[in-house]
Fold this protein.
Amino acid sequence: MSTVGETPNVLHPLVEKYLRKERMPHMACPGCGIGQVVHAVLLAVDELGLTPKDTVWVQGVGCNSRITYSTWVGDNVDAHHGRMFAVATGLKMARPDMNFICFTGDGDCGAIGGNHFIHACRRNLDVTAILFNNGIYGMTGGQVAPTSPVGAVTTTTPYGNIEDPFDMCQMAVAAGASYVARWRSTDFKSLANSIKKGIQTKGLAFIEVLLQCPTNFGRYVLKTSNPQDVLKWIKDHSVSQKEAEKLSKEELAGKYLIGEFVYRPERTGIVARYQEFLKLHQKE
Amino acid sequence: MSSAVKPGKYFVQGDEAIAEGAIAAGCRFFAGYPITPCSETSETMARRLPEVGGICLQMEDELASIHAVGAASVGGLKAMTISSGPGISLKLEGLGWGIKNEIPYVVADVQRAGPSNGVATRVGQGDFYTIRYGSAGGNSSIIALSPKSTQEAFDLTIECFNLAEIFRCPVFLLTDETVGHTRELLLIPEESELKVVKRFKPTVPPEQFLMYPLDTPGVINYPFPNIGEGYGICVSPYTHNSKGYASTAQDMQEKMAKRLVLKVTENLDKLVRVEKQKMEDAEFAVVAYGGNARPAIAAVEMAREQGMKVGFFRPIIVWPFPDGEVLKVAEKVKNILVCELNIDGQLSREVARASKGKAEVYHLGSGGVEPHLPAQIFNETRRLYK
């Protein structure tokens, strides 16, 4: 047994293989869902045989970014708040041969970086972007997010949130991403397979994960510190697309759809288009 | 195989010369956002970069363009962006990321009359302090060169790229609408005659390499490994240790801040670039920079014709400010007249500071739109000349 603040004696084999041991233990709060998502990412990386030499982790700013930054044994590029997609654009265009696994949060992607997100989808940037959606600003202490449900009491909506949340997946579909899917942190197998599929997809793969934040979403919105209660809330507020077909409009209100929304690998991304474009115009 | 550099004589705008200078310096990534008076640079890059196998993107906004440029440099390409006025205000957000992570790239600022949108198509010189102190958080030093002509726009853009690699930092080309839109002769030399600094690469294996040399803060020509080179680099917005890991420790903040400042301040001798004319016997100095140097030089010639002992001084490097050179001028003359296209007094404030009271410093300001007329500067010189 290890105590808090000490490196645990036994590391998960995927951590041994792909993460920097000196960066463990990670910074996630007890019960946080980020570890589950990172586990799924590592499984996808392992099954596809990606290596630290050919794969870069890119982050924005938020819990997911702060926790994953500089843990990948290869290169780590963490952007300013909201600028993850802008940075990923420069990186991918400079190194189209490399894989970029990009982590973003609902504030990073849906609020301060919303414009970059939309345009990355429009360009169909060839990276795998994983949206960690906990429905609240975690790192800054429980403020309302553009993904917070109506009525949510947070530190900046003490009387309840009056604004409708964004559906980030529908935005990605409308803006042109090649592959768009949403899972819960508990849909482990589906999530890991989806990330694998995303990495193999040409163009932008956008994968949203609904994950539990007991520390802030639990505390302020649900008045609980128990991660199980938050997971139950996510379960009660989400439904597979197949089940959704049987439900009325009223029954679907306030529920997240789970599953794959679009898969259009035939839609070329900016990298392939630029390479074709260069064939026509390069003189040197 | 044709060369990226196209030697010859051209009749072009300063904005176009910036693009050609960048390509000659090895720039292969440009990201911009349309803005007057520098869209001509973006347009030239859009035409020329694909020809040389480079990447030119028009991004969704100014923020995206500077972040993409910083990232492309981390990816291994020499990179540049450009803007003016309100676009520069936005770019400052991304500048901090470049400064903190010691990323080499170039930002050109073609100044126009401000504040806010001001007069988009006409000249101003209001960004002198903006580029130096605009990036929040302090603890930075900025390098900025300022051309007065189309030829210098080309030459100094190459130098900006070289200094960016030598000092591992974003470097500014601080120019203005006068230079950007003046169409005049540009001589592009043979590629072999150009001095181009390549990115320094580590000579030690990854386990021995430190991404950020915090214990030797004054070191320059320090390697910058890019992604995919096996060095496992860590780039972030956070205060970092020498590996790039985020730190909240006071000593680490102190070390990082010192590195970011001292790498420039300990190498000032390598950065001095000034122009002097008729200073040998001068008793009065006219000081100006950028496009406004041109009427100032004309005014000095008018004064000389009248028998007045007037000389001209111009900082070609505006940041770090050439304090020592200005002090030499102040020790030589009685009065210094600083002519610049802002009313608040920016260059004149630095000249007064660097003069240490050795000479009287006067400010001849203008809100911009038009550069100063030689006669305006001459009249003010005659009034103050004793």
Remarks:
- The interface with chain B takes residues 23, 52-54, 56, 59, 61, 66, 69-70, 73-81, 83, 85-91, 93-95, 97-98, 115-116, 118-119, 274, 277-278, 281-284 of chain A (CB under 8 Å).
- The two ends of chain A are 62 Å apart (CA to CA).
- Chain A has a mean pLDDT of 96.
